[in-house]
């Protein structure tokens, strides 16, 4: 083929479209406008991740020590407050038990003094407790019978005839000097009370002394329970328990001394 013909064929073929490109300045301008970069913005060399909220920063060693001391102080205050509450409760329970013992002894001493003086009053039977089959526990005599006095005689009238035997047995079991019930009817007991002799007064006084010792033993038992609840004899609060013990024992001894003086007058 001739060169002339070849060039003619090449000119006849379709040429590919030329890819146009923007000049460098145009590219920079276009990119800048699309990103809308503020030329006044301050840039930082730190990374974007470092600016995220990572929570509270770790405390310095001094701050940690102060926080630990504050926690310990708070816990100590809480434990001390709880300890005071426990001590108060233990002392209160022990005092209640001791007061019951003192009240019981006071009632028995009063009855003994009345008997020693030769007075005949229903109070002479205040310490009697009756075991009734249809009632739980021991009942006070006044709950199952009425007690009246006339001259040197006490009369006990039960509310139900079925109580007569338990009441009679309870009065005998009380071991009250100079008191021996006699059955008058199915519902009434008679208790003649003679003026006590010197020997009977001595016996009554001895029984009162035994009563005080029994009450002291109950107080000591309550003290032991209180010490155990507090954690031992040297635990906090034991001084408060012992203070109550001393007060109760002093009260009992004072009652016994007063009873002896009354016996001397009779």
Automatic annotation (TrEMBL):
Q: Does the keyword Protein biosynthesis apply?
A: yes
Renumbered to this chain, the Polar residues biased-composition regions fall at: 31-42
Per UniProt, residues of the Ribosome recycling factor domain are 118-262
Q: Name one GO molecular function term.
A: ribosomal large subunit binding
In its UniProt record, which GO terms are filed under biological process? translation
Concerning InterPro entries, the annotation shows: Ribosome_recyc_fac, Ribosome_recyc_fac_dom, RRF_sf
Q: Which GO terms describe its cellular component?
A: mitochondrion
Keywords assigned by UniProt, alphabetized:
Protein biosynthesis
Tell me where on the tree of life, at the top rank, the source sits: Eukaryota
Q: Where is this region: Disordered?
A: 31-81
What the record says about family reads: Belongs to the RRF family.
What this chain does, per the record? Necessary for protein synthesis in mitochondria. Functions as a ribosome recycling factor in mitochondria.
What is this protein identified as?
A: Ribosome recycling factor domain-containing protein
Which species does this protein come from? Answer: Kwoniella shandongensis
């Amino acid at each position: 083929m001739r060169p002339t013909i070849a060039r003619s064929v090449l000119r006849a073929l379709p040429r590919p479209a030329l890819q146009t490109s923007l000049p460098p300045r145009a590219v920079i301008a276009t990119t800048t406008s699309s990103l809308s970069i503020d030329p006044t913005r301050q840039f930082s060399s730190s990374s974007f991740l470092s600016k995220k909220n990572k929570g509270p920063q770790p405390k310095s060693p001094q701050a940690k020590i102060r926080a630990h001391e504050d926690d310990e102080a708070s816990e100590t205050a809480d434990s001390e407050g709880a300890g005071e509450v426990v001590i108060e409760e233990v002392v209160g329970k022990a005092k209640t038990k001791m007061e019951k013992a003192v009240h019981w002894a006071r009632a028995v001493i009063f009855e003994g003094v009345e008997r020693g003086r030769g007075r005949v009053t229903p109070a002479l039977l205040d310490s009697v407790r009756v075991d009734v089959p249809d009632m739980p526990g021991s009942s006070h005599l006044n709950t199952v019978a009425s007690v009246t006095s006339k001259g040197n005689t006490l009369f006990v009238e039960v509310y139900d005839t079925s109580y007569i035997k338990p009441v009679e047995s309870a009065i005998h079991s009380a071991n009250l000097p100079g008191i021996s019930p006699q059955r008058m009817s199915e519902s009434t007991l008679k208790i003649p009370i003679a003026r006590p002799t010197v020997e009977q007064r001595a016996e009554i006084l001895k029984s009162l002394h035994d009563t005080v010792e029994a009450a002291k033993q109950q107080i000591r038992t309550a003290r032991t329970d209180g010490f155990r609840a507090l954690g031992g004899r040297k635990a906090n609060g034991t001084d408060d328990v012992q203070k109550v013990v001393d007060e109760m024992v002093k009260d009992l001894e004072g009652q016994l001394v007063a009873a002896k003086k009354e016996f001397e007058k009779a």
